[in-house]
Amino acid sequence: MLLFIDESGHDHKDMPCEALAGVAVSEQNLWNLVRAVRAAEKDRFGDYFRNLRDEEPKAKKLLKRKRFRMAGRPIEIPAEKVQSLAHAALLKGKAAREAGRTTSDATELELVAYSRAVLDFVHEVLNIAAQHGATVFAAVVDRNAPRPEPGLLRKDYVYLFERYFYHLETLPPSERGLVVFDELDKAQSHILIQQMAAYFLGTETGRFRSSRIVPEPFFVHSELTTGIFLADLVAYVLGWAWCLRGRGEPCRNDLQPYVRKILNMQFHGEKPRQDGEGVWHLRGIVSIDDLRGKFDRDEDEAGA
Asked: 277 or 3, which is more confident?
């Protein structure tokens, strides 16, 4: 089992919340999922993004507000014309970038068709993920959440790994979970590896969960990895549209149709209570307003 992880909103620029997302896909289903997503890409745009934009699709660009406004313009376009028009818009955009121009010669009709193709493509990507058994885990975090001491794993990661572990517990005992991250710079990657090691090797709970989760992560180029693209989509959508309600965050209603599809893929499971009396019911998507573990909170309260 592979868990692809990505995050969004951690730069605290535009998004109202931080979001850490993981999408679990079995090895048996992964290649078929990748092929289906690539086919959907070519079907909507006439070619692959990497050929038309010199980059892979990213949620921040695909689902920006402008995309919805453009797609919603009152212009009628026959369904059979959308692909060719979207393809033309991408080609003109690529030509403009190569010429050093900031604007392309794409017509309004082409831009509207492209925006509609994009929104439909994202719907189809989420449909494909569901059809191939993808399971979603995510933590949506208050931007002002207190942080743990350096060297300790944040609670959003702990919650993701906890739910991933109990997902693996429903599978045959031989099944192990691998963790795949979007590539960070070397310093950040080293810090994350150390934090994971401290959790999985240095805590009783972490050692227990390492029986199913391989503690050493893999880092991949996101532009080459469909699984990371899925996690990127989930993190962006949830960070904007499943944010912590009641706190005044500007949640985006235009993303709600995608939220519903993501919620249908979230993990549902159980873990035993520590007292042995019954179980806790777990959901894959959680909200967090404090990223510290118990140790950090106790230390902070003792010093108050």
From this structure: 3
Per-residue pLDDT reduced to its tens digit, 164-179: 999 999 999 999 999 9
Enclosing H/E stretch for 296: helix 294-303
For β-strands 17-25 and 268-272, DSSP reports them as: unpaired
**DSSP strand pairing (279-283 vs 285-288):** unpaired
> What is this structure's pTM?
0.91
User: What value does the mean pLDDT of the chain take?
Assistant: 89
CA atoms within 13 A on the CB side of 61: 8
- In the block, residue with structure tokens 């949830």: 238
23 close to 237: Cβ distance less than 8 angstroms:
no
pLDDT at residue number 183: 80
Phi-psi region of 9 (alpha: psi -120 to 50; beta: other; left: phi over 0): left
Of 115, 97, 128, which is closest to residue 35 (Cα–Cα)? 128
* Portion of the chain with pLDDT greater than 90, in percent: 64
Do residues 19 and 248 touch, judged by C-beta distance below 8 A? Answer: no
- Distance (Å, whole) CA 77 – CA 32: 32
216 class by beta-carbon count within 10 Å (0-12 exposed, 13-18 middle, 19+ buried): exposed
Residues 6 or more apart whose Cβ sits within 8 Å of residue 248:
none
Task: Give residues with Cβ within 8 angstroms of 97, minimum separation 6.
Answer: 54
What percent of the chain is predicted at pLDDT more than 70? Answer: 92
Give the span between the Cα atoms of 128 and 71, in whole angstroms.
Answer: 22
Q: Are strands 17-25 and 2-8 parallel, antiparallel or unpaired?
A: antiparallel
DSSP structural state of residue 213: B
Contact assessment for residue 251 and residue 245, using Cβ atoms and an 8 Å cutoff: yes
What confidence category does residue 283 fall into, taking pLDDT thresholds of 50, 70 and 90? very high
Return the residue matching tokens 């970038």.
Answer: 97
Tell me which DSSP letter residue 148 carries.
P
* Structure letter (DSSP) for residue 177: B
